[in-house]
Write a structure and sequence with these properties.
Elements (H helix, E strand, L loop, with lengths): L4 E5 L7 H10 L7 E5 L3 H18 L4 E5 L2 H5 L4 E4 L5 H14 L11 H25 L4 E4 L4 H11 L3 E4 L3 H12 L7 E8 L2 E9 L2 E2 H7 L2 H5 L3 H5 L11 H10 L2 E2 L3 H4 L10 H6 L7 H20 L13 H9 L4 E8 L12 E9 L2 E4 L6 H23 L2 H9 L9 H11 L10
Parallel strand pairs: 1-2, 1-4, 2-3, 4-5, 5-6
Antiparallel strand pairs: 7-8, 8-9, 8-10, 11-12, 12-13
Helix pairs in contact: 1-2, 2-14, 4-5, 4-18, 5-6, 5-16, 6-16, 16-17
Length: about 450
C-alpha cells in the first residue's frame, strides 16, 4: 500500500523524530509512504521536517514528508498514528520530580509510577482519550502506536474507552537482553528468552545466551562477589561494569528467581526502600535524571539538528531506539515482527487482570498482534499486580477528576509514606493545575 499515511503526533521532538523518520526511510517496505509530522510547536516542527526532508534526499526515497499544526489535517485518512507527547513538557515534569522530593521521594525517572508517574498520567490520560476520539472521527481504522509514558496507562485508556486499535512500544526489554548478551561476548540473535510483567517492570523468567542459561554464566564470573562491591568500584569493574545499570535488579534476582528485564532507573521506582532518601539513592549508586539535564539534552538535540542542516555536522541517518517502522510494516502486510508488545491482557499473563496492559513477547503481522503466553511466578506477581491495579485507578482518577481515587493510589504506592500521601497529592495538583481541567480547585 504505497500511499499509506503515517501521522507522527509529537513530530516536533528533537530527540525522537529524527530516529523515527530515518527508520521509515530505511524500511524498504514503507517506501512511498506519506508521513505527516504534527506538533503544536511550529518552530520545532520546521526543524524536524527540514531534517526529515534532507534524510529523504540522502536516502533517495519516494517517501514524502509534510508538516502541520492542525490535528485534523494530521489524522485525516491516516493508516498509522505514532504518538510521543508529554502534556506540559518539562515545565510540568519539573513539578513531577521536585514536589515529591520535598516529601521525601527521590525519583530516578518519574514518568511511569510513583508520584511523578501518577501526576503525568492525570494530565496525559484525558489528552490521549481526546486524541483517540479524534481518530475515531478522522481515521477509525488506523492503528495507534504509543511511545509515550506512562505507557501502560495511556495505552490502556485508548483500548478501554474507544474502538481504536492500539499497541505500546518500549525498547527496554530488548535493550536489557542485548546488554546481557554483550556481557557474554554475544548479541541479541544469540539469545532465547521469556519475559513477563508490565512496562518498566519487566522480568526475564528464562534467558539462554549461546545455548547456556544466563544465571550460570553470571555465576561463573562471580556475580555474588561483584554485588558486594561499593557502587563506584562496581561501576568500574572490568568484568561486570557493563551491567552496572542493572545492579539493583541483579541483586533482587537472587531472591526472586528471575533476572531484571529493565534497567534500575525504572525498576527501583516500582519497589520500596531504594528512593526514600538521598542517602539511600547514593548508597545504591543510582542515577537520577534532573530537569536541568533534560533541558540540556533537549538543547543539544536541537543543536545537532541545526548543525546537520547547516552542514557543520555530517548528515547521517540515526538508528531509533524503537522499531516503529518495522511495526508499521508488519501491520501493513510486510515482514512480520517479533518484539515486546505492550497490549491488553488476553490471557498471556493469566495472573493479571484481563484487559490490563501487560508486556510480553509477541508477533505482529497483517492480522494484528498475537502475544505469547508468559505466566508470572507468584514472587513477581506480588510486585507487579498491585501496580496494575494502581494503573487502572490512575486512568479512572484522570478521567473522573477524582481526588479520592488518586489519593488511594498514592497512599498504597511503595515509594510514599502514608502520612505524606495527601499533602503530596495536593501539592502535585496545585503545581500542575493548568493542565488538569478535570480537577476542581
Amino acid at each position: 500500500m504505497a500511499n499509506r499515511k503515517i501521522a507522527l503526533v509529537g513530530g516536533g521532538s528533537y530527540s525522537w523524530t529524527p530516529g523515527v523518520a530515518a527508520g521509515i526511510l530505511n524500511c524498504a517496505y514503507l517506501d512511498g509512504s506519506q508521513v505527516m509530522l504534527y506538533d503544536l510547536d511550529p518552530e520545532a516542527l520546521n526543524l524536524t521536517t527540514a531534517l526529515a526532508q534532507r534524510y529523504r534526499e540522502q536516502a533517495g526515497s519516494r517517501t514524502a514528508f509534510a508538516q502541520t499544526t492542525c490535528r485534523e489535517e494530521a489524522l485525516d485518512g491516516a493508516d498509522y498514528v505514532v504518538v510521543t507527547i508529554s502534556t506540559g513538557g518539562l515545565d510540568a515534569m519539573q513539578v513531577d520530580l521536585e514536589v515529591p522530593e520535598q516529601h521525601g521521594v527521590f525519583q530516578t525517572v518519574g514518568d511511569t509510577v510513583g508520584p511523578g508517574g501518577l501526576s503525568r498520567a492525570l494530565r496525559n490520560v484525558p489528552v490521549f482519550l481526546d486524541l483517540a476520539r479524534a481518530m475515531e472521527r478522522h481515521c477509525p481504522k488506523a492503528w495507534m502506536l504509543n511511545c509515550s509514558n506512562p505507557l501502560s496507562a495511556l495505552t490502556r485508556v485508548v483500548g478501554r474507552e474507544t474502538g481504536i486499535r492500539v499497541v505500546g512500544l518500549c525498547h527496554g526489554v530488548r535493550s536489557q537482553v542485548r546488554a546481557f548478551a554483550r556481557f557474554c561476548g554475544l548479541d541479541l540473535a544469540d539469545c532465547a528468552y521469556t519475559n513477563t510483567g508490565i512496562d518498566h517492570c519487566a522480568w526475564l523468567t528464562e534467558l539462554v545466551i549461546g545455548g547456556r542459561p544466563a544465571v550460570e554464566l553470571l555465576a561463573e564470573k562471580d556475580l555474588e562477589e561483584w554485588l558486594r562491591l561499593p557502587p563506584a568500584q562496581a561501576a568500574a569493574d572490568p568484568v561486570f561494569g557493563s551491567l552496572y545499570p542493572s545492579r539493583c535488579g541483579l541483586w533482587l534476582s537472587r531472591q526472586l528467581g528471575a533476572l531484571p528485564g529493565i534497567g534500575d532507573r525504572h525498576l527501583v521506582e516500582f519497589l520500596p526502600g531504594f528512593l526514600d532518601s538521598a542517602q539511600r539513592v547514593e548508597e545504591w549508586g543510582l542515577k537520577r535524571t534532573s530537569i536541568a539535564e533534560r533541558r540540556q539534552n533537549r538543547l543539544r538535540a536541537r543543536a545537532r539538528i541545526e548543525d546537520q542542516l547547516s552542514g557543520r555536522e555530517e548528515l547521517r541517518l540515526p538508528e531509533g531506539s524503537d522499531d516503529v517502522a518495522g511495526w508499521i510494516g508488519a501491520l501493513d502486510g510486510g515482514p512480520s515482527v517479533e518484539d515486546n508488545l505492550n497490549v491488553a491482557n488476553l490471557g498471556q499473563i493469566p495472573q493479571l487482570p484481563e484487559g490490563a496492559v501487560v508486556e510480553t513477547r509477541g508477533l505482529l503481522d497483517a492480522t494484528g498482534f498475537r502475544p505469547l503466553a508468559s505466566p508470572m511466578p507468584k514472587e513477581l506477581e506480588a510486585i507487579v499486580r498491585p501496580h496494575v491495579l494502581r494503573q487502572e485507578l490512575s486512568v479512572e482518577a484522570a478521567l473522573e477528576g477524582s481526588f479520592a481515587k488518586a489519593l488511594a493510589l498514592l497512599s498504597t504506592d511503595p515509594l510514599v509514606r502514608p502520612e505524606c500521601a495527601r499533602p503530596l497529592l495536593e501539592d502535585l495538583l496545585a503545581g500542575t493545575r493548568q493542565w488538569l481541567p478535570q480537577f476542581k480547585p
